[in-house]
Design brief:
212 residues; mainly alpha; Beta-lactamase; three-stranded antiparallel sheet; 9 helices; 45% helix; elongated
């Protein structure tokens, strides 16, 4: 999906530079290229210039098994793009004076256990904490959709497993770190994580169809 978005962006930029204006048919062709070449199953493309919407269209399938075409108003699971919302929430709470990026995680989650490591919120944000990455476990892949698995069992997995490396000595992409940041948001704000996102991010920005 990232490659397809980049292709669309570069293609549209090149077109504008050459002609001074965007041809809707050419934009449509660029957006459809990934589906036509079987590089992606489906996507929604939008190109806006000033107040003008030059392209807003769905391509390919939303569901291949049921042969459902991709609708313009389709909703997508954004996966790890959700990490930016956790980071924003932490920074908002920092700006409000409710926490510091240099707070150790044990200040907010005292039962976690850091095995002698100084794990700060800053380290969690930068993927340099070394904390066990629970999402790579087979049990997580099997059970993560269970209603109570994430908040309860994932936290227990992180507590039980040793660090993968001493804090600050390496960088490894970590879902665990951002999971813990979500718990810190709850502790510092006094709100459930999903409620905080709705009230402090989605609603102020008019993101009416975004949800946790």
């Amino acid at each position: 999906m990232k490659r397809q978005i980049l292709l669309l962006s570069l293609g549209a930029s090149a077109l504008a530079a050459q002609t001074g204006q965007a041809n809707p048919r050419t934009l449509d062709s660029i957006a459809a290229a990934g589906v036509s070449a079987n590089r992606t199953v489906g996507l929604v493309a939008a190109i806006v210039k000033g107040n003008d919407t030059l392209l807003m269209k769905g391509y390919g399938k939303a569901d291949v098994e049921w042969d459902v075409p991709m609708a313009v108003d389709a909703m997508f699971e954004v996966g790890s793009i959700a990490k930016q919302f956790a980071a924003v929430a932490i920074l908002q709470l920092r700006d409000a004076g409710k926490l510091s990026l240099d707070d150790e995680i044990t200040k907010w989650l005292p039962y976690l256990g850091a095995s002698g490591n100084r794990v700060t919120l800053r380290r969690l944000l930068s993927h340099t904490s070394g904390i066990f990455r629970f999402s790579e476990e087979t049990d997580f892949e099997i059970n993560y959709l269970a209603p109570r698995f994430p908040r309860d069992s994932a936290y227990k997995l992180i507590k039980l497993e040793p660090f993968q490396f001493p804090t600050g000595e390496a960088q490894a992409y970590s879902n665990s770190g951002f999971w813990l940041l979500g718990l810190v948001v709850e502790k510092a704000s006094g709100m459930k994580y999903e409620d905080y996102l709705a009230k402090q991010i989605f609603e102020p920005l008019g993101m009416k169809r975004s949800l946790y």
